Here is the input.
Amino acid sequence: MSLCLAAGALVIALGSDEITLSWRHSVQKTLWEELWRNGPDGMRLVDARIQGSGAGMDPPDGAKLVDGFWRWTPKLPPLPEVVMRRSGATADWRVCIAGACRPMGAYLPDDADPVVLRPCG
Here is the structure.
């Protein structure tokens, strides 16, 4: 089942059951990326990576430094949705599908807030 981005009544099908969300920390300017995969039991966060640390963005114990990113597999249960906020005070979220990345604003209006990632259906 494909993943969707939703903001109010506007729903955009992404055409993939796996996406990477990325953003930069507002103070540290550190890049953070999360790989989400939809499955029969909900969405799973299967990989998290952060390019550095500081300001509350420290990698957890067990993270491994690979190609300049601290990487780990978070221990979270499947989720029905992920809610993202867009303050406008920082760079927009990036949505990557099969290696092609676009800002959230390419999918939804810049003032769409909050945005929910969820299975389409």
